[in-house]
Amino acid sequence: MDVYENSLHDEILRIVRAEHWNPFQVLGPHPSIRGGAPAVCVRVFRPDAREAFVITDSDPGSPVPMEKQHPDGFFEAVLPRDEGGRPYRLRLVDWRNRESDIQDPYAFPPVLTDFDLHLIGEGKHYRTYEKLGAHLRVVNGAPGVQFAVWAPNARRVSVIGDFNHWDGRIHPMRLRGTSGIWEIFIPGLPEGSLYKFEIRPNAGGPARVKADPYAFLTELRPKTASVVHDISKYRWNDQAWMEARTRANPLDRPMSIYEVHLGSWRRVPDEGNRSLTYRELARDLVLYVKDLGYTHVELLPVMEHPLDASWGYQVTGYFAATSRFGPPEDLMFLIDQCHQNGIGVILDWVPAHFPADDHALRQFDGTCLYEHEDPRKGFHQDWGTLIFNYGRNEVKNFLISNALFWLDRFHADGLRVDAVASVIYLDYSRRPGEWVPNVYGGNENLEAIAFIRELNEAVHREFPGAATVAEESTAWPAVSRPTYLGGLGFSLKWNMGWMHDMLDFVSKNPVHRKYHHGQITFGLLYAFTENFILPLSHDEVVHGKRSLLDRMPGDFWQRFANLRLFYGFMHAYPGKKLLFMGGELGQWWEWDEGSSLQWHLLEFDPHEKLRKYVRDLNVLYRSQPALWEVDFHWEGFEWIDFHDADHNVIVFLRRARNPRDFLVAVCNFTPVPQRGYRIGVPEPGFYREILNSDSEHYGGSNMGNGGGVMAEPTPWQGRPCSLSLTLPPLAAIWLKKSD
Fold first, then answer.
1. For position 5, what pLDDT does the model report?
2. What Å distances lie between residue 490 and 167, 449, 465, CA to CA?
3. What is the DSSP string of 659-727?
């Protein structure tokens, strides 16, 4: 046996043992010399075949038998050069004498360009979802699927699936230079094929079977295979919405958000308590939200996740819409229907951590590839999850591409970024000694901060009018300020301080509220330091915190009155609005992801009237530019009186860009009516009572001001005029000067 034969023998053994890093070096057509004449040697390894033949285009009726070079299924045939240079097919005969004709995957060139590989390695390929993963392609006239995956520390990577008996020996991939990216084109493979990647680590040990990080669809839990899926076949009908969005600034538009968990918004008890499908939600949820007057819905994560109880916050399929409610096209249809009905869609997005499920990203190629190896940086103690390594270019590229993917392919109008504080602080929820300082000795995660800034820059550059929203619970400065001013670059930030203060305040017995009056007013000290959303989210109605209605003090009537007052105060306060589903019903129970909302409560007057109140609040809010045009600057807000702790009344004014367009909000946080209560106003005229949360239409006592009050020329509270009002108990009233 000569040197060439020895070398080829070793190569064949690597193929048979599924250890070869570049099977294209051995398999497929290769130039050869046989009998002194140029030839082409075709090699194939199919352990599921008993016999193999080459079928040439010039003589398809006379298949060329392939000689078995190894008993495990390595075959070889030598063709004349003029025959071997043409397209050919393989005929495989299995051990049951069943024949199949296929095109040879190892006869096709690579699909990814060197420029693709360069950009991915730099972390600047913001459309990696068009390159990595599984894509239906036509290569050299042959339809099939191109697979590509990043696994730089693998000795061998194979595509396995229902098309090759989940056998990692049949379709090993080629490693593209030093990029760490493996790829293969498999001709003839149809949409809907199930697949995973089998990865043999460089460090040794058993092969790992992993779902595709870039898969567009996965099997329904508890199954975990990825599914070949064409994500581009849906035809959108929201062109008008998308064009208008590019010209809009979400900061100076009304934004009233209905936060939804799709799996528990409404269930079908007659069909095993199943959740509604995307298509059913497109019919029912969209009309419901539109009727309630909301401008946006925010969906708890719709990315694929294995555990219902995680609410979607432990993602295993970042590019896959969860298959719980239907295929990806049906989620697109839901979003499309929202847009056609004037409703924006914000998606919750989770770049802070990922679960440790074996089929997902954890130790993807046998190493800590997506996560930090040091548990002080890579393990989240609170949630038992893993933390992304934001300093690795390819990981950063994965996350930024994923954010853009949902804005691009699913037409999302914004992303609410979960748990930002856990991303930017190295010592988040850690004791001394449990974290590693940065290079300057501080607790800031410098790599994560750079990632977040680049993310926000990319979103705002690529998708004008789209919003990014930070759930950030600390005093980190300039979260919602541009990166060129030193900020993190988010459009908006959840106002967690306001939410905690106000929920604590309104939960107190009114007898004690005057001693805590500062909780109402404190938020204005920082209200304009960020672009805030006021969130009454899902997190506030779980884990023993009780529902919003159940938190309110007093008897049955007072609880509803308190909640109406709180909502009225919230909608007049500076900042965009968010309410979790069920808050409009006055649920008595905490939210349960396994149960439907308590829709039966609407059969009872107080609950139906509360829902009507929320609807009227939204409609009125949207109609008043003073409540949303200048949300993030002092010019849009003025205190009239915040000192009256004894009566527990606050009075403030909201202005639009036009300073003559203003609205006065008065909130009485006591259960005592207050007659002849005088407040100062800036102009003379008649002030209409455009909202009264104590109206009988909403379940109140119907105390008020008879539709409005004429201003008196009596200076008060530094204003040239004043109003003498009747303040209903536990009520908010809004007053608008008539033209």
1. 57
2. 46, 12, 12
3. TT-EEEEEEE-SSS-EEEEEEEESS-SEEEEEEETT-GGGTS---S-TTEEEPBS--BTTBSEEEEEEE
pLDDT tens track for 142-163: 999 999 999 999 999 999 999 9
Q: What is the DSSP letter of 444?
A: B
CA 306 to chain centre: 15
Query: How far is the C-alpha of 415 from the C-alpha of 255, rounded, in Å?
Result: 14
- Quick one: tokens of 435? 């974290």
Alpha carbons within 13 angstroms on the beta-carbon side of residue 678 total 13
pLDDT of 4 strictly over 70: no
- Burial code of 494-508, b = ≥16 C-beta within 10 A, e = fewer? bbbbbbebbbebbbe
What whole-number distance in Å separates Cα of residue 75 and Cα of residue 720?
98
Sequence-distant (6+) residues with CB within 8 A of 342 are 241, 290, 295
Question: pLDDT band for position 503 (50/70/90)?
Answer: very high
User: Are 436 and 377 in contact, with CB atoms under 8 Å apart?
Assistant: yes
| Partners of 417 in beta bridges | 349, 470
How confident is residue 38, by pLDDT bands cut at 50, 70 and 90?
confident
Task: Report d(CA 531, CA 527) in Å as an integer.
Answer: 8
Query: Cα–Cα distance between 255 and 622 in angstroms, integer?
Result: 8
> What tokens were used for 347?
């998606």
Burial category of 421 from C-beta neighbours within 10 Å (exposed 0-12, middle 13-18, buried 19 and up): middle
Mean of pLDDT values over 106-129: 93
Backbone angles phi, psi at 411, to 5 degrees: 60, 30
Collapsing DSSP to helix, strand or coil, 11 comes out as helix
Q: Is 453 left (phi over 0), alpha (psi -120 to 50) or beta?
A: alpha
Tokens at residue 700, please?
A: 């109140």
The conformational region for residue 593 under phi > 0 = left, psi -120 to 50 = alpha, else beta, is alpha
Percent of residues, the chain, with pLDDT higher than 90: 90
3-state secondary structure of 24: helix
Show the CA angle centred on residue 528, arms to residues 477 and 541, nearest 5°.
Answer: 80
The residues that are catalytic are 418, 471
Please, which residues have CB within 8 angstroms of residue 686's CB and are 6 or more apart in sequence?
Answer: 708, 709, 710, 711, 737, 738
pLDDT at 85: 58
CA distance 55 to 102: 10
Q: Is 550 exposed, middle or buried (0-12, 13-18, 19+ CB in 10 A)?
A: middle
CA distance linking residue 546 with residue 294, whole number of Å: 24
Residue 1: pLDDT above 50?
no
Q: Tell me if 157 sits within 8 A of 198, measured CB to CB.
A: yes
The helix (H) or strand (E) run that includes residue 185 is strand 181-187
**Is residue 10 over pLDDT 90?**
no
Separation of alpha carbons 372 and 362, rounded Å: 10
Residue 257 has φ and ψ, to the nearest 5°, of -105, 130
Q: Which residues pair with 734 in a beta bridge?
A: 665, 691
Mean pLDDT of 363-389: 94
Neighbours of 557 (CB within 10 A): 15
Q: What pLDDT is stored for residue 83 in this prediction?
A: 60
Inform me whether the pLDDT recorded for 413 exceeds 90.
Answer: yes
Contact 458, 468 (CB under 8 A): no
Q: What is the pLDDT of residue 82?
A: 66
